[in-house]
Amino acid sequence: MAAGGEVVVVGSGFGGAVAALRLAEKGYRVTVLEAGRRFADADFADSPWQAHRVLWAPRLGLTGIVRVRVRRHLLALTGIGVGGGSLAYAGVHHRPAAEVFRRPGWDRTVDWAAELAPFYALAERMLGTAPVPLPAGADTGDGVLGRVAADGGPAGASFRPVRAGVYFGAPGRPVPDPYFAGRGPERTGCTGCARCVLGCRVGAKNTLMKNYLHLAERLGARIRPLTSVIGLVPRPGGGWLVRTVPGGALVPRRRGATFRADQVVLAAGAWGTAELLHRCRAAGTLPGLSAALGSRTLTNREVLLAVSAPGFDVGPGVAVSSELRADDVTLVQLCRVGGGSHPLAALLCPLPGGGARALRRWPVRHFGGRTALLLAMEARESALTSRLRHGRLVLVPADGPREPARLPAAEAAARSFAERVAGSAYGWWWNTLLGLPFTAHLLGGCPIGTDPSTGVVDTGHRVHGHPTLHITDASVVPANLGCNPALTVTALAERAFAAWPAA
């Protein structure tokens, strides 16, 4: 590996944040380019009514933390801002079972489960992983999910609290950094407000600005927010030109900047990285990119359901608190959105057969407290393929199984939950009316592998044909994980940068 000292990192999510810290520790001069804003805890939304703090649509004056993309074959939610997906994720950290890494897509020259084990442990220490304390009571959302699991036979043994990157100290009480011997920022104990995915205003969720990025800046890494990368050009003799434009409506109009780098790390997420590489190939600036670019784009086979009941109280807690196995490949997690979230009720649509009676049962004014959301993920094989059409990333079905809009095992769990609270189970309109797959955990598009015909990067995360261009985000994950991917992306990045030499 060439050991040039100037590194540009594109994106500040899990892969980019690991790059910033580990390369700064090794003496590289690191610049992180992030398309979104930098947020202080107080900048996050108080409620979903504050769309300008939740959604990213700068042409409409919205500069929040979630970008919504709708294509013919997919609705995808992705995070944006300094800290990437960690700003809007629920903080859930999940290690996939070892058999996941033996499924099609994973390069068989690497024992991934064994190699990643120490890096999963390192990622958990950095991100502050801890079991979620569940609220007491059989009638809370977690208690009901536990009863659903217990009544489901073998699945009962799988019910458990999730593990999350949240500081569960005294609620609302600020304390000096409890993770990094005082080198990290002050933390505040989780209050159980459940607004994790709107951005944690309390300061309890361990976003990347609380660990990797904070420590990287202490070592001299520079973070440039509101800077969108639009092109990569190899320099004669080695190195790169990274072309950017200002991002966001809050930035005055000005010409874009060009950054010089000896090496570039792409970590703009599964959508952003694939789209950038497609554009570079179309422009002719990156010849020889693998034909696998865009392949194995994955939805993690996710479906989101809801159960509402007039007298039900989901209880306080974090956004995702417990889970069960609906079958061998389907994971169902209990989610809550907190009080003041009734604007979300307008997005719900009853499952077929619910009719007007089901509509009347919506607890619209108390949606947050009266509704349990059930996020299901399935570890089965299916994929899309991304392409560039008229300058825009589009997705088409790949050969093989299609992405699901419904999961029967998850719907059975939702109906069982609804029976126990005398409520109704619902799907979302994009699933039930349009049959449109959904994901909040987009994966793939730049799969990892030793064969350039099927992998965009090698097992060291170097782009085939361009050894000073690296990818360390969710785009390299080559198969559906069937669980929350943040910890896996972090562990993969830790493994990649552990192999870099000192600058």
Give the tags.
503 residues, seven-stranded antiparallel beta sheet, six-stranded mixed beta sheet, 24% strand
Q: What's the shape? A: globular
Q: Which segments are poorly predicted (pLDDT under 50) over 5 or more consecutive residues? A: none
Let me know the number of strands: 27
Structural class: alpha+beta
Q: How would you characterize this protein structure?
A:
The chain is of the alpha+beta class and 503 residues long. It has helices spanning 14-25, 51-54, 112-127, 141-150, 212-218, 269-283, 355-360, 367-370, 408-421, 429-432, 486-498; strands spanning 6-10, 29-33, 56-57, 62-63, 66-71, 74-79, 129-131, 160-161, 163-165, 174-175, 187-188, 222-224, 227-234, 240-246, 258-261, 263-266, 302-308, 320-325, 330-335, 348-350, 371-378, 384-389, 392-397, 424-428, 438-439, 462-463, 466-471. Helix content is 21%, strand content 24%. The strands form eight sheets. The protein has a seven-stranded antiparallel sheet. A six-stranded mixed sheet has the order 12-2-1-16-27-26, with helices on one face. Strands 5-6-25 form a three-stranded mixed sheet, with no helix packed on it. Strand 22 (384-389) and strand 23 (392-397) form a beta hairpin. Helix 3 (112-127) packs across helix 11 (486-498) and helix 4 (141-150) crosses helix 9. The protein is globular. The model has no long low-confidence stretch (mean pLDDT 91).
